[in-house]
Amino acid sequence: MGLKAVHFGGGNIGRGFVAEKLHLAGYEVVFVDVMDSIIEQLQKTKEYTVTEIGGEGEKVNKITNYRAINSKTHEEDVIDEIASADLVTCAVGPNILKFIAPVIAKAIDKRTAPKPIAVIACENAIGATDTLAGFIKDSKHTPQDRLSSINDRASFANSAIDRIVPGQDPNAGLNVKIESFYEWVVDKTPFAKEGHPEVSAIKWVDDLNPYIERKLFTVNTGHAAAAYYGHARGKRTIHDALQDSEINKIVYDCLSETSHLIVKKHGISTEEQKAYVEKIVKRISNPYLEDVVERVGRAPLRKLSRKERFVGPASQLAESGDKVDALLGAIEQAFAFLDVEGDEESAELSKILKSTEAKDVVGKVCGLEESHPLFSKIVPIVEKVQKNTK
Question: What is the pTM assigned to this prediction?
Fold first, then answer.
């Protein structure tokens, strides 16, 4: 019997990144989603394409050997698929993990295979698999008398993913356009006993933290800073924003601050981090990605939260008395990303700013306590945005 992976999330990252790499590694991929339209398209279509875009041109991969199940209507089928699979992955968004955990928990409990299933969450969040595992192990989903033996049935490994998916053509259907560069790094320590799954696209490491923070505080910080400043100045794409010399300098200033943290905290050399920054800025500047600033900037509430791309590094830097001026500027632009069409979080942020005192906004949105050294630096920023948006 061949290799099988069950993947939750039939969106662009799921189809264009995770499933693509699993397909190339020889896995049959079983997509699971609750979106009727996506599942129906996947069920009716025997193949789709992933077009990788890079400076050297385009490369098209044809994806086949997949099936699709609607977990809303066919939960038992999903349970059976996971119970006999080698690997389960997801790209559903960090806030959706609690909703997919119950069915995964039932499937893990049903497993009788001698080798544990590998569970890897592929989300833009630190420790996403740990979060998913926490929901799975909750007594509401896994019987407490089965908890002590759950590691015999499942191995949970955190991962860091990095690949830019630009806006897609309106008539693309299942086909995905994606950048050629990618990084998929996974903690190999949970697989010490049984060995990790064979997926050539994955880089297996003993310590994931440096990779997660380097990616989040370089790629995501730079990408979002360019988006928020670009939006404020009427730029259409990230490429357009970074062609503006002032925005370009601001983005580099933000990454200089985060680089200081990364070098000091993780022992990465200054030269290596500088080369990484240059590579990242070149990537996000790619004109062929047609990366619209509103798409990159969407979900500002999440992006302004405690462990995310701005407050995450700025809070650590502030704790050691280091410079955070550029990051504070980006935080201001993120707070000003309000009422953007199609983005519910920007509308919610607007409501919060209109109805909440600045100090309470910083606590609620950024997750900072008043005693934190960054708190007093963000309060006047929020007050300024509130004054400007009245």
Answer: 0.82
